[in-house]
Amino acid sequence: MIRVVATRLASSSLSIVILVTLVFFMVHLTPGGPAYSILGIKATAASVAEVNARLGLDAPLYRQYGLWWWHLAHGQLGYSYLLSRPVGSLLWQYEINTFVFYTASIVISTAVSILLGLVQGVYYGRWPARLIGGLQLAFYALPPFFVAAILVLWFSVGLRWLPANGITNLRAEHPGIGSYVAHLVLPVTTVTLLTVASLSRYFGEAVQEELGKDYVRTARAKGVSFSAILFGHVLRNALRPLVTILGLSFPYIFTGGVIVESVFNYPGLGWLMWRSALSQDYPILIAIVLIIGVLTVLGNLLADLVNSVLDPRASYE
Amino acid sequence: MLLVAPFAQAQVKGDCGTIVFPTGAGQTGSDDLTSFSPLFADTAYNQTASLLLYPNLLWINRFSEIDWSRSLATAVTTTDNTTFTITMRPWHWSDGVPVTASDVAYAFGIIKQLGPTWVGYGGGGLPYIVKTLKVLGPLQFQVVTVHPVNAQWFIYNGISGLAPLPEHAWKRYTVDQQFQSQSTPSFFDVVDGPLKLQSIAMGLDAVFVPNPRWEGRKMHFSRLVFKFLQGDGANVQGVESGDTDDSELPTDLFLQYAGHKVPGLYVVILPQSTYENVINLNFNNPKTAFFHDVRVRQAMEDAIDQQAIIHNLQHGNGDLAFGPVARFQTQFLTPAMRAGDYPVGYDPDKSRALLKAAGYTPGPDGIMQKAGTRLSFTYLEESGTDAITELDEIIQADLGKVGIDMRIQQMEFNQMLALMASHPTGWDATGTGQSAPNYPSGEGNYETGAFQNMGGYSNPKLDKLINENISQQGLGPLFAYETYVSEQQPVIFTPRERSVLLVNDRIHGMGDFINPVGDYAPDQLYCTAEETAAK
Q: Above 60 in pLDDT, residue A85?
């Protein structure tokens, strides 16, 4: 197993190096640059040259590229040109927000998806399954910004039950945990609604497929109760595709989603990435791409490992 | 029958507790605060925030006049228009150390060191117009310019941009260290402004509290929080849901709110600002050489129906602009302009006549042309703001009516700037909002090589008038300059739009909170504490 993990990590490292290299050169070759964001309307050829010199952006690109890896090897991700902070500490601040947000979303989504999927599988062809299927399709078709905007209009602007954006009540000098939770409700609900729409569909189909298999028929013929079959066998087997999908979602836990975080002005990594891209704050952008690459690899690997535990037949040797 | 003595309701200024504003009230849009250093604050939002900690020597009020009662300086005198003596009021840093003229000298030393990378470079000729800055005493210093200057210009645009910085707290840091600390609250522990920076959460908010040693007017809040919100929608939703206390109201939402009473909110239309919106023409591009013909430029200005823009798009919250001086700055306007008489103005027939006089005739597609050159250009537009797009489309339609073809191409702002700076011939025209100095002198806008002169306009006569405007006394040179700019149209002026705010009805004083150049006077904010007193 250790050999498998080591081999997978080694082969994936090359992919990450290629990814980061591509992004590094692409963002540096895009017209503009951080100097223009810093100087704004005062950007002249001379002032841009001065700012570039101060930021080290006047060095040849290959040298900047080499320096970036050199700094990474020494545990440094660089310094944000626009936010005037070391990238490492910035990412950490945004990362915490994203981690809480997406962990809550994925945990709730998974639980709800399993519940709905079971109902959908068990009641296949009858009205509960059809109702769930209709809702799945409806929410699957809705774009995230639309769902988010509707939730804000209803629950923040209309009813004033929940805050529209941010992560805490700024009026309170020492906002309690309740304030953080309240600010999470709408973003988490948005992600949950959209994630459940796809996850529960996958899981429902898997449950339905498992329920039609021979082992279920045999177990029932032997007198095993339906609930024992459902929770003791079907659930475990149907979870495999769900685990694979969750593994692919793993990077989201850390990088967030650009759209939902933007609508709710939620300061997570997705939002930071979007804004860094607009202002061409290269160090942040490249660091986040690196994180996405690493987490995608780890997410896939983790999903494979969990699947091999769930189904011993699945071997990745 | 019970007789009740007549009562009068008197409002006293009550404490608001915590006030939450998005950044950018009175400015365009909103953005994160990332720097609080007056030396490095690069965006308008950062500059506004830094001035709350380190106010400039002079405060310019909403009428573009110096408000001495709010200024750190008490007098600026000169006898020869070269040597200026500035006297400061006794004042203290938040750690109790007196603010002195040496603190101004210290700040000026760093400004000279930073050179063109100083955010205020060039304003009022700073720092290059200053030969010496000498400390005369604890509260007095002397500035000697390299040549005689228009005293009013130098005071309004130069001296007003100077601020004391806490030498005793900062002198141990190099400029690079100061640059690296520009968003670190502890670095800004010693201030002389009305507020102190309590904390900043990157991407979230910055919390300011009243400076307990502030010797100016009393604050009526315990905390002023600037929340970093992105986008018009988030801003409006914020104030509607009660999360924040104000929001910039986009023009397309104005009627929705202004016409109806929304519970808990009211609309504030801010006084006119000096900020101007213009179309920058590229004079370096051979493809748009027709911009060199003043008749073409005048025809463009005459084709744009500014009244219609103000009425239909800005819902009356704008002002006509045909020249470099805002019409509310009456003290700087020529008598003719004060009466509304400009060399240009909306007149499509005159516009067509000017084009005809310049030799242009309508082509088969209706676009004016001369010797195979069509009056056609591409206009770069900053992407992402509906109001800008709507304005540009109206201008496009107006120009089209007289046979000028303006094609709009959207682009990200910094990519647009990069294109303009690195490829001087690679663009035709663009629209920018540009800040006008306190004294409307034009050296930063229209002089050959000026930093806001993006299109490379160069006119020796205008250069001479600008030079006279900043070096000669009296309003005569200013009047000559602004008349000539209005006639020549080095940029095409479009209406100056007023900011409209949607405000939580517990907050008062918003109209006085923001001055014409977008600086904040937090002491003007208050909440009502109704006091019923029998007369």
A: yes
Q: Which residue has the tokens 């939402």?
A: B253
Q: How far apart are CA B271 and CA A201, in angstroms?
A: 57
The string of pLDDT tens digits covering residues B50-71 is: 999 999 999 988 778 899 999 9
**pTM of structure:** 0.82
Contact yes or no for B412 and A278 at CB 8 A? yes
Distances A79 to A11, A89, A237, A286, B180 between C-alpha atoms, Å: 29, 10, 47, 12, 9
Interface residue B225 vs chain A (CB under 8 A): yes
Ranking B85-89, B204-208, B349-353 by mean pLDDT, the lowest is: B204-208
DSSP-based three-state secondary structure for B26:
coil
Cβ neighbours around B203 below 10 Å, total: 23
A144-151 helix and A177-211 helix, angle to the nearest 10 degrees:
130
Whether B233 and chain A come into contact, CB under 8 Å, resolves to yes
CA-wise closest residue to B85 among B97, B73, B93: B73
Least confident of A85-99, B204-218, B471-485: A85-99
For chain B positions 3-62, those within 8 Å of chain A (CB to CB) are 17-18, 20, 32, 34-35, 42-43
Which one-letter DSSP state was computed for residue A154? I
Residue A74 contacts B, CB cutoff 8 Å: no
Dump pLDDT digits (tens) for A125-171: 899 999 999 999 999 899 888 999 999 989 988 888 998 888 888 88
Q: Do B432 and A31 touch (CB under 8 A)?
A: no
Q: Is the ipTM of this complex over 0.90?
A: no
